[in-house]
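batch_manifest entry 22 of 60
target: F-box/FBD/LRR-repeat protein At1g13570-like isoform X2
source organism: Nicotiana tabacum
requested by: lab member K.T.
priority: normal
notes from requester: please return tokens only, no post-processing; we will run our own comparison against the previous entry in this batch. if the run fails, retry once and flag.
--- input ---
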Amino acid sequence: MMAPKGKKHCVRTLPPDVLNNLPENIVDEILIRLPLRDAVRTSILSKKWRYNWCRIPQLTLDQALWKTKKDLTYITSNFTKIIYHILTLHVGPITKFTLCIPNLEGCPNLDNLMYFLSRNVIKHLVLRLPRGNPYKLPSSFFVCLQLGHLTLKNCLILPPPTFKGFDRLTSLKLYNVSISSKLLESLISHSPLLEQLVLQISGLSDIIEINAPMLRSFDFTGNIRCICFKSIPFLAKLSLTKENYVEEKCNIAKLFEPLIALEHLHLNDTFFFAGAGEVPTRLPFNLNFVKHLCISSICLFVLEEVSFALCLLRSFPCLQYVEIKVEAGDGNDIPALECLEVEQFSDVSFNHLREVKLIRTNGTIREMQLMKLLLAKSPVLVRILIEPCLVEDSATVKILAEGCTH
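--- output ---
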């Protein structure tokens, strides 16, 4: 293409050795953002780049290192060698380390790796290990006292007697770990800065106490008998899922009383409260900050479950969003149906409720009654979303149209 007349044709060229002249901090930022495989490949760019990857402070070893089944087999048989090369070539601190190897056949010996990390000021550690026999964390793990973020999967936590906890933790996520209830309580209570807690543990059977004065988010999945909240003045998000039914009476009022700052509540089911005895019409106090309520499984033909859901609705006066997933079933529990009658809510109005979502509806009488109730008692309701279980079913749409005409 010819340059326009009267203008000089300028060709912009890069400096001849721009890659080699980049500041180290810029190079580090580039390498951190690359998958480890690509970061290592930069060693062929020039002699100066040959060992740049060796000082990366954040390392991630995951599925990105092996994308085919052939590669997976190779990695499985040579995993120890790969770790050895990384540990012998790396220089400088490692502040964040992620190891995600859920598909390996058995867990390799990681003791040397843990010892190496314990001497490198590790602050963020993620270990997602293969299923089977849990990996017993070595003593070197328990001296990583700079840890601020910790994620463990398929590990055995058995600290030495001298271990006092990680007092700098702000995030703790434990998936399928083997740990005693008492040790878990101690680990949480000795983390005074803890803000995020995720527990997906099936092996607990005792009642555990949660004492975390800075905790803001708690997600629990397991088969524990009951949870007792002690000092949690800032807890805003709570998600509870009980995997199996455990016969244990849980005092609903006692459970919710400490949750003074709660804003978002997600209950996967009502197993935590099955066997709680007679459910009160409402809690003896209001939780005025709760804005979002999600119940992922509720049987509208079971009186206890319906009563519990309605108890929460009455006790959250500032509720703005409700999501309920209805479980299929049928029954002749007349009291459960009577609980949903609008007349039962003569002294209640959901004055802040703006959106309702009902999932897996089948157009049963109880579902229709619930929709009528929410429509009648929610003066500022903006939207109600209905996801029917059967596309052909039109009963839920019919009741919505009927309610909107009043």
